[in-house]
Amino acid sequence: MHNHNLPNLLESMDPGIVLFDNDFRVSYVNRALMQIFAETSREEIFDQSLLQMHSGASRAKLEEIFSLMKDSSRQVSFSIKRMSGGPRDLFLLLKLMPLLDNSLANSLHCCLVYDITGLIANPQRRFIKVPVTASGEIHLIDPEEIVFIKAENVYSQVATDEGEFFCDLSLGLLEAGLSQERFFRIHRSYLVNLARVQKVLRDGNAVTLLMADSDSRLPVSRNRAKDFLVRVGLK
After folding, report:
1. Pairing between strand 78-83 and 90-100?
2. What does the DSSP 8-state code read for residue 45?
3. Would you call 160 helix, strand, or coil by DSSP?
4. What angle do CA 149, 112, 91 make, to 5 degrees?
5. Would you say residue 130 lies in a domain?
6. E-assigned strands of 116-230?
7. I need a surface site. Which of 3, 57, 107, 119 has the fewest CB within 10 A?
C-alpha cells in the first residue's frame, strides 16, 4: 500500500489544544486552536458546551467520537471529523487524552486538534488521499488504490489489495468527495472503483460484481443496476 503515515506528517504541525470537562465545557484552549476556528468567536467557545456548538446528527456523531476514543478496547485514540459551515469544510484529526485528578478520576479531557484538510482534500472538496487505520496508526492512501468501500454504520471499511481498513468517514461523504468518473455507488452499502471491476455477473435481474484481485462479489441493487450497466457500456 503506497501511503503516508499521518502521525509522521503531523510532527511539523502545531496542534490546537482544548481542555474540557465531562459536560463538554471548555476551560482552556491554545492560540493554534483559535486559528483553526478563526470564524468562531471566543464567546462561542467558552460560553457554551462543545455539544451546543453542534446540532442534530452532528452532535450525536461528536458524542460517539469521544465515546469511542475513550474506549480502551479501540486500537487508537484518533478520530477524523469533518466540520461543515462557513466558506469551507474542515477535516480535523482529533486525539483525545483523558486527564486524571488527584483521586485518579477522569474528570478532564485534553484534545489535540490537527487541521489536515490540505493533506486529504483539494479546494474543490475532492479527496486527494483517504485516511484509514492500519496497524494502530492512521495512514493516507491514494484513491486509485481503493478496490471498493463498504458502509460500516456511520463509518466505512476501505478495501485495497492489501486488505480492508477502517475509515472514520461515512460512505456518503467519501462518495461525494471521490471522483465520479472513477467511483460508482452500486448499492446503499457499496461504492466501487470502476477500474477494479473484473467481471459483471448477471443472473436474471440480479447483477453482481467480481472485483479484481479479490474474492469479493458485490451486489448491485436493482434500482442502480440499469445506470451501472449503462455506465460500463453493457446496456
Report:
1. antiparallel
2. H
3. strand
4. 35
5. no
6. 130-134, 137-141, 146-152, 155-160, 163-167, 183-187, 190-193, 197-203, 206-211, 217-220
7. 57
- Domain that includes residue 182, residue range: 142-231
Reported as a single tens digit per residue, the pLDDT across 162-186 is 999 999 999 999 999 999 999 999 9
Distance, CA of 95 to CA of 80 (rounded, Å)? 9
Q: pTM (2 decimals)?
A: 0.86
Angle at 129 between CA 80 and CA 180, to 5 degrees: 105
Does residue 148 register a pLDDT over 50? Answer: yes
Q: Do 20 and 112 share a domain, yes or no?
A: yes
Tell me which amino acid residue 156 is. S
DSSP per residue over 99-140, as a string? EE-TT--EEEEEEEEEE-HHHHB-TTS-BSSEEEEETTEEEE
Cell of 145: 488504490
CA distances from 157 to 109, 148, 223 (A): 29, 9, 23
The alpha carbon of 98 is separated from its chain's Cα centroid by a whole number of angstroms, namely 22
